[in-house]
Each structure stands twice: as C-alpha cells, then as structure tokens.
Amino acid sequence: MDARSLLLLLPLAVSAQVATDARFEGRPAIRLSNEQVNLTVLPLGGAFVELTLAGDPEKLSPLWNPVRYPRGGQPHRGFSLGHFVCVDGFGPVSPEEQKAGLTGHGEAHALPWKLDSSGKRGKESWITQSVELPILRENYSRTVRLVDGENVVAVESTLENLLGFDRPVVWAEHATIGKPFLAPEVTVVDQSAGPSQTRPYRARPGALPHRLPSGMDFTWPFAPTADGGRVDLRAVPNPPNSGDHTTTLMDPTRPHAFVTALHLEKRLLLGYVFRREEFPWLQIWEFYPPDGNLARGLEFSTQPYDVSRRDAISTGSLFGAPTYRWLPAKSKISSRFLMFYTRVPEGFRGVDDIRLEGGKLIIEDRRSGRKIELASSVGL
Predict the structure, then answer these.
(1) Domains of the chain from N-terminus onward
(2) Are the C-beta atoms of 62 and 341 separated by less than 8 Å?
(3) What is the DSSP string of 176-204?
(4) Average pLDDT over residues 70-76
(5) How far apart are CA 339 and CA 291, in angstroms?
(6) According to the model, what pLDDT value does residue 9 have?
(7) What is the CA radius of gyration of the chain?
(8) Is the separation of the CB atoms in 106 and 129 below 8 Å?
(9) Which helix (H) or strand (E) holds 130?
C-alpha cells in the first residue's frame, strides 16, 4: 500500500473510534467507542449522557435519562445531563452571585464546550474539550481516553485560575444513575466508605417523605431511620416513596476511592475510581418517587453536601476532612478518575474492594468469593 492510500484510510480508522457528528435524543453529541463500550458526550456542558456495552442488545445505559420515560407512556420530566461536572460551584448561589449571573452548580455544565482535539494514536482514542467560565474567571479543560479492548474510560480535568489571588473552589463529578438500570431491590450501591452522615434538613410540604432523620452520623451502609429503626442503603426500597441525601467521607486509609452500582439480575456493573485527595466526599442523593421514575446520585466531590460556596467554606471541615479545595493564583489544579462498565459473573453480589495494580482494576466481591480484573492502561 502506498503512502497516499494509507492516508485515505486514516480518517476511517479514527471515525470508528471517535464520532464527532453523533446525536443523542436529538442533540449534537460525540461518541467514543471500542469493542467493549460506547460513551456519548455532549458539547453542552461536556456531559456524559449514555454509556453502553458494545455487545448489549438492550443498549442499557446506567446513566439517568428521563427523556426516555415518555416511551413507556409516562410524562416527560426534563432533560438530564446524566453525569455532569459542577465547577466551580456545587449547590445554590448567594443573592449577590445570582444578580451577577451565576446559577447553581457552577458555570461549566450550562455552557457549550469547545472540542479542542480528537483522534486515535495507537490503541488509544481521545477527545479534549474546554470551556471558559466568564463569571468565575476560570478555564476548565478535560481529556477523555478510551483504549481498544478495555471497559475503562480515563478522565483527566484541569481548572485554571485567571485571577491573581488564591481562591477556595468547590468541584463535583455529578454522576446520576436512573431507571431502568436503577430498580427497587435489584440495583445495589457500594463504596469505599469512612464515616457517614444524613443530610440536615427541614421538612418541606409536598416533598417526598424522608426515611432518614436529619443530621445523624452513621456507618455505611446501615443508617438510622426517622422512626427509630435501621435500614441498609445499598438498595432502593420496595415500594419506593422517599427522598433523602447522605454524605460519606471516603476511607482515609486508601489513596484511591470508589463507588459502584450493580444490577443484580442483568449482572451489569458501573463503577468510578478516583483520587481521594481530590474528591474526599461521596454524596448519595436519593429520588425515589412512587411512580418508579427513580434516580440516585453518586456524586464525588470536594464538599460533603451541595451547598453554597459561603456555606462550604464556612463549614471548613467535617470528620476532620476539608470541605473545599484551594486554587492558587494564576495556577492550575487537576483531577483524574476512571469510569468503567462491565458484566460480572453469575452470583456476583456487590463490590467490597477495588485496587489498581499492574495496569488492571481488581474488583472483589467477598460475599461470593468472586473477583474480576479489567485492563486499565491509563491509570491514576
């Protein structure tokens, strides 16, 4: 084959791995794919909106997408961003910030991102996106990598301070799973848990009932209930009819933290592995209405709850861990995490441990004595 013929073939090799002209629910999208998984990313907010196994005839994505609900004859409840980034901000804004044009959960998720580069080099496909945050005076960029034959997606992000002074920032990866992947008594969540707490709250008329009391410390996964009992938070209750929020400090003895969601019947496992020093907190937001349109946040973050910047910084620490992160003057900070999606063996009941060793994720279920290994060429 001559050089000209080889050049003609190169775009085809790239388009098989990175499709920059994809669509998702009628919107422009980017799709990274290999022989194992397909990940769909939006230019709007850089959101991860769909993750499927390449060989799954159902194309079942664990990520929350209420747009699909009308297909079952149920009312549409808005467009979900699935897994989006909250930077710089995670929660409501102050009146002064609102007047300045800032909205909740930071600027990045609501702005169109530039596609700076995409392609394939060797076995690795990638996209790099970026966005300028004009109110916050920050730049945010992210590279997503997928290696041929692997079920693991590697994500590296950088946040740049354009101002000449140190500033505290709040940052969260707002991952949310939903129906039909999320089902009562069928989908279980595990994490590398340290101490946990139920979110302090005041009862609001018309809101979903609380199963859990306000502001109580507990040891994951068994939480106190509002009626004086105890409940295992791993699974959605059956029947569902509650709304609660908990936070967990990731195990301080581990450099890498994890959270997973396993569909026991379909044997599908979604997981995230991240650096504990960058995201010491894991928030679980539960939305369990009786109509079955379930959602559950698996939100790893710099703070224990999605609160205003003032509240996060005023809190300072919880369980001895900080509730915000510093971004030095005219400098950059970064974060890295791995996201994976895979089938597990028959009898796999949950995740007790995940380790990154020798270019592999070692995922253990001590309940069943089973273990799986996933190749992970791009580590943490």
Answers:
(1) 3-348 (2.70.98.10)
(2) yes
(3) EEETTTS-TTTEEEEE-EEEEEEPP----
(4) 54
(5) 30
(6) 34
(7) 21
(8) no
(9) strand 124-133
